[in-house]
Amino acid sequence: MATVKRKIRIGAQPTKDVLEEIKSASKHKISYDKESPKLSKAQLQSFVPSNPEYFRPKKQQITLKLDADIIAAFKKTGKGYQTRMNAALRQSCPFLPQVRPSVQPKA
């Protein structure tokens, strides 16, 4: 099967022709070899991005009671205060990987 490359602008919808190509490509048999072996589900789940900037842990909504002055201090920093709170929590946990070094709490 030949490799077909298409450029689609961000936000643009693929054309019907492109959608048909994608559908037909899914019908072709995948061939595995020494350089591209078939991987188990566990092996696939163990993959992590080589660049931590692309790794985003799954978010989970919880209810958490914090001191009012802590919340006020973070809210004063403006939009994105919850992200900064998450980064501060992550930074304070030495056993967790620092996955998003570009997100640092504002002073």
Biggest β-sheet: count, sense, barrel?
A: none
User: Which structural class matches the secondary elements?
Assistant: mainly alpha
In the predicted model, the low-confidence regions spanning at least 5 consecutive residues are: 101-105
Q: Count the strands?
A: 0
Q: Provide the succession of SSEs.
A: HHHH
Distance N to C terminus: 55 Å
**Strand portion:** under 5%
Write a structural description:
Residues 101-105 have low confidence and may be disordered. The chain is mainly α. It is built from four helices and no strands.
Mind sketching the topology for me?
Layout: H1 16-25, H2 41-45, H3 68-76, H4 81-92
Name the descriptors.
single chain; 34% helix
Provide a quick synopsis of the model:
This protein has 107 residues and is mainly α. The chain has helices at residues 16-25, 41-45, 68-76, 81-92.
